[in-house]
Amino acid sequence: MELLYNIFVGPFAEMARAPDLLVQTLWEGLVSGVLYALIALGFVLIFKASGVFNFAQGIMVVFAGLTLVGLYEAGVPAFLALLITIGVMFALAVCIERAVLRPLVNQPDIILFMATFGLTYFLIGFGELVFGGNPKVMIADELYLPKGAVDLPMFGGLVSLQKIDIAAAVIASAMVAGLAVFFQKTRIGRALRAVADSHKAALSVGISLNQIWVIVWFTAGIVALATGIMWGARSDVSFALQIIALKALPVLILGGFTSVPGAIVGGLIIGIGEKLGEFYFAPAILGSALGRGVESWLAYFIALAFLLFRPQGLFGEKIIERI
Amino acid sequence: MRAPGSNAGVAAGDVLLAVENVSLRFGGVKAITDVSFDIRKGEIRAIIGPNGAGKTSMLNVINGFYHPQEGRITFKGRTRSRMRPYVAASQGIARTFQNVALFKGMTTLDNIMAGRTLKMKRGFFWQMLRHGPALAEEIEHRRQVEEIIDFLEIEHIRKVPVGRLPYGLQKRVELGRALAMEPELLLLDEPMAGMNLEEKEDMCRFILDVNNQFGTTIALIEHDMGVVMDLSDRVVVLEYGRKIADGVPDEVKRDQKVIDAYLGVAH
Amino acid sequence: MFYREAGQFKTTYAADMAVFPILQDKIGIAVIVAAAVLLPFLGAAGIVSPQTQNFLLQVVAIPFLIFSLASIGLNLLTGYTGLLSLGTAGFMGVGAYACYKLTTYFPGVNIIVWVLASGFFAAGIGVVFGLPSLRIKGFYLAVATLAAQFFLQWCFIRIPWLYNENASGAIEVPQRTLLGVPVTGPTATAETRYFVVLAIVAGLTWIASNLVHGRIGRSWMAVRDMDIAAELMGIKLFDTKLLAFAVSSFYCGVAGALLVFLWYGGAEPEVFSINQSFLILFMVIIGGLGSLVGSYFGAALIYILPIVLRLLPESLGIPIGGATIEHLTFMIVGALIIFFLIVEPHGLARLWQIGKQKLRTWPFPY
């Protein structure tokens, strides 16, 4: 009885007691959701076009951020460093296409998935070798990113919004819109969708697979760079981010692996669900001593519970097994 | 190999399986609409029809992979509307597939041995030790599997992973795997698709031998009309998920609706 | 010329079904087992110095065996049954913590009993996290195992009861004896611990080999290769998958208990982090999915390679910092994974088979 109270009444009473705190928590959830969504977006791009489940998206975020900061620290002006980093991401896309994707054409998905594990490890080693293993501070000021906070009076309290978070949300929305246009309206976008449906059929109508792959991985690299800058500006650029990036998996499960809007919605659900769980539900159910840090696994459980009811994701179609 | 299911309460000529008013839908798509037919013990029953007529779906319904929204299926006198595929398997329904569905990473021997899983009774403890009863059981089943291998003339590929075999042989291994289950009813989904003439003749011979020697009842889907008319005792014809004809081959061959379905008809 | 089965005729199915049907293989296995048993006596025989002896056992042989066991566990699940797991370290942790609690409550019972018993706890937890495998497959299942990984690690950190409320938050392994000889704790010699680990790992490998060569192993592989066909042949998918989760987690749990009790002598939750899970997955991939001997190869390569990399520049007199070596190791491991997936997706085990095939026909390959 008390347990039921703790689950179904306690947390909500707590929310109602201090609505300004609730809004603050929701906002925090929204922001981390945007960042999950950005990583998930990189996954979706690559999955759509090459059917590869790119485990390395997280490390690509770290790698892009590190390259940017590393170049700046080496004395390159900030915006030049940004340009060079974009160049590096392009080079990375070309290398991945040559060394990993091209030789593994037509292999089962799971083999490609595991190849991206290898890629992750390679990039971790390479990144640490070149830039060192210590966390770095993102050059937010030099890139003219806003800082400080806006305080909004609300429900008799103050809700504090970091300007950088607002910027992240705006940039994420712009990127999603841009990608949607790119996919639906351009010739390359159409080729991408064709490749996603069937490699062989796309080849037969004269679409160059190799070229498409480079473009997609490069686009994912740009998304990774944007994510790296945003995330780096909130905390540090460090390899710990790579573990957090795994949360893109539950996001994708909610949103479906091929849906760009799905990645966004999934990200927001996971981000907000996680924060509500951490601040309201876990302390009420598990007690204040034990109920901390549930953020580390809650996202996976949300996704899992969701999977049991809707195995194809929010926006996916119902799967009919054939034989 | 002993005749499978000889002790079941169904004598030759009786109805072994009856499909009554079965309908199957996927969302709004009607795969099968109100189809009824029966399969008698010991016969070779062909299911034919143009592409997309619902033939494979029908087999999937019979062995429990799809659950029809309406209708009943009676096998060996027991009626059911829903059941899991392994229940169908344990009651004696075996199956081969249109696109070969072998276990690609395993050898021919292991594939056929896997067909005997249901017959093997030794539990986890003995399996763990692989001595005593478990080993004796394994050897006994190996002996029976070797008989099937002999029968299908695939001795030379016994230890080859099936993924490396040519298509015709894969089909033959798949038949072997189904036979290893000692089925009472054997469902063959296009057993001769993509084969050359010689391979087809071999396969026909195997099918007839299985039917004659072991008394196994066979239901097969096939597109080669010559084969269907020669092999089968009775034929059921489906079109767009409905039954349009049912009877002995000569009857069906002359049926106007069947001719229309295959040759098209001017509207 | 020497490795050839010509003239060895098999007259019974039993002989044909043996795990090592060829005489030369039997000899090879006997030699390896003998070498493994004799390894701790190298020092006593004066062949290597006591320091080298200790190094060989404590730094190389014991962890190698333990990681091999964990790889076998994961291989049963991922390689044989085709269920990708990213939660191996979590299940290893369950074994370690279960063993710790059991020996705390019942210090009188032999520690080896508890090491093996802790496997059952891991198996139980493994089955719970395997339940979603009824409805979900592939990448989706990887999320279920990630849930296990992060949830279990969270438990190891947050639940003080698990580590007996130690201030450090870590397990400290108490001393336990077997027939009066210390097996765990600071006074246990490397030789004793080595023999215990060797016996357990060899025994469990034998059992795993029996399982995969019989009905259960065939069911696992059938589910891996074509689950629908397996189900239509009467293999119960759910039971088969859960059994794979249980057995796999049992092996991982025992490996985790061995890791803490007979190698580290103590452990923090960090030992069972996701990175450990990845390393064991890499061992399985590089060694060969669906091969027991491959698990040993993979563990050898992934675990021993960094040691060699650390020692090699030193012995050659090349000054490279320790951190640099670590980074290089990451790069090499990553590159190796990609290399193996491209060149030989079946890993070192397949290369080994090809080698044996070549040897059979040598020196007249045609």
From TrEMBL, chain A:
Belongs to the binding-protein-dependent transport system permease family. LivHM subfamily. Keywords: Amino-acid transport, Cell membrane, Membrane, Transmembrane, Transmembrane helix, Transport. The chain crosses the membrane at residues 29-47, 52-72, 78-101, 110-131, 164-183, 212-233, 239-272, 284-309. The keyword DNA-binding does not apply. Coiled coil: none annotated. It is found in: Cell membrane. It comes from the Bacteria. It is a multi-pass membrane protein. Its main location: membrane. InterPro entries: ABC_transp_permease (IPR001851), BCAA_transport_permease (IPR052157). This is Branched-chain amino acid ABC transporter permease.
Automatic annotation (TrEMBL), chain B:
GO terms for molecular function: ATP binding. Residues 17-265 form the ABC transporter domain. CDD domains: ABC_Mj1267_LivG_branched. It comes from the Bacteria. Keywords: ATP-binding, Nucleotide-binding, Transport. InterPro entries: AAA+_ATPase, ABC_AA/LPS_Transport, ABC_transporter-like_ATP-bd, BCA_ABC_TP_C, P-loop_NTPase. SMART domains: AAA. Pfam families: ABC_tran, BCA_ABC_TP_C. This is ABC transporter ATP-binding protein. The lineage of its organism: Bacteria, Pseudomonadati, Pseudomonadota, Alphaproteobacteria, Hyphomicrobiales.
TrEMBL record, chain C:
It is a multi-pass membrane protein. It is found in: Cell membrane. Keywords: Cell membrane, Membrane, Transmembrane, Transmembrane helix. The keyword Transmembrane applies. Its main location: membrane. The chain crosses the membrane at residues 27-49, 55-76, 83-103, 109-131, 138-159, 194-212, 242-266, 278-304, 316-343. The keyword Cytoplasm does not apply. Pfam families: BPD_transp_2. PANTHER family: ABC TRANSPORTER PERMEASE PROTEIN, HIGH-AFFINITY BRANCHED-CHAIN AMINO ACID TRANSPORT SYSTEM PERMEASE. This is Branched-chain amino acid ABC transporter permease. It comes from Chelatococcus albus.
